Amino acid sequence: MLNLKDNRIINSRQAGIMMPLFFMRSHDDWGCGDFSSLKQWISYFKQYGVKIIQILPLHEMAAGEICPYAALSAYAIDPIYLSLADIEDVQNSSSARALMQQFGEDVASWRAHSRVQYRPIKDAKYKVLWAAYRQFTMTQKLNNTARWREFLIFQKTEGHWLAPYCIFRAAKDKTDWASWKSWDASLKDAKIEDIKSFAAANAGQMMFFSYIQWQAQLQLKAARSAAAQEGILLFEEIVPITTGHRCANNISHASLSPDKACWRIMAESSKYFTGIFIQ
């Protein structure tokens, strides 16, 4: 949490700029600004005395959505902003590197396009991230390394939103991105035990989404650190509280009848779901 009250930059007259991250392009992005290009723009802005950089919301958007204010989650970061080349598991995975090469022509096309090609870029990044995640679990989980333990700490610390989000995200895939209002009653209005069963059956996919958020948080933290070293305050705009009906937070806190308020219960009782992650 930023302490703006005692911040020297914010409490004096300074030059600042507000830009969307997808606009902060670089020569090695995938057709959309990412956390690596953000650091390059930080260095660029420093030359002109910029002391404050505010970027539009980074929250994950639903499939087919291009507006940063139409968030799928009030917490989760959109994976389109991940710099794949900066992920250790991508570097160490032959499968991930092969996919990066395979998408070479597509990436060149996305870079040349006048608009961000959200859907194909994200679909491609998900494939590379899946290969990276498999590399991570095979090398880190099995050996209980320091990085694996760091991942578990992230899940436990962020479990209050991360667990419900990952279940919701897995459910969206399972229902082919249909609105939760049209889900089958066995999922939408299920009791807590049914949700537990769903979470257990989809634990691998949930871990994958959790891994993506871990990497996104690490890259955002690195960008903030790079800005601080240049004497620049970097922060992102908070998504409006009036997120759409497709948002994980809305269904997690839906005002359903007490015997069917599984998603509300899930949000309020994330201890169990965090346990799924760390077992």
Describe the model.
The protein has 279 residues and is mainly α. The chain has one domain (15-278): TIM Barrel. 53% of the residues lie in helices and 5% in strands. It contains 13 helices and 3 strands, in the order βαβαααααααααβααα. It has helices at residues 35-46, 88-92, 94-102, 104-112, 118-141, 146-157, 159-174, 185-188, 192-201, 203-229, 248-252, 262-268, 270-278; strands at 15-19, 50-55, 233-236. A 3-stranded parallel β-sheet has the order 1-2-3. It is globular, with a radius of gyration of 19 Å. Mean pLDDT is 85; it is low at 253-279.
Q: What is the CATH superfamily classification? A: Glycosidases
Number of strands: 3
Shape: globular
CATH structural fold name: TIM Barrel
Biggest sheet strand order reads: 1-2-3
Quick overview:
By secondary structure, the protein is mainly alpha-helical. The chain is built from 13 helices and 3 strands; from the N terminus they run βαβαααααααααβααα. It has a 3-stranded parallel β-sheet with strand order 1-2-3.
List keywords for this structure.
3-stranded parallel β-sheet, 279 residues, 3 strands, mainly alpha, 53% helix, TIM Barrel, globular, 5% strand
Architecture blueprint of SSEs:
Elements: E1 15-19, H1 35-46, E2 50-55, H2 88-92, H3 94-102, H4 104-112, H5 118-141, H6 146-157, H7 159-174, H8 185-188, H9 192-201, H10 203-229, E3 233-236, H11 248-252, H12 262-268, H13 270-278
Parallel strand pairs: 1-2, 2-3
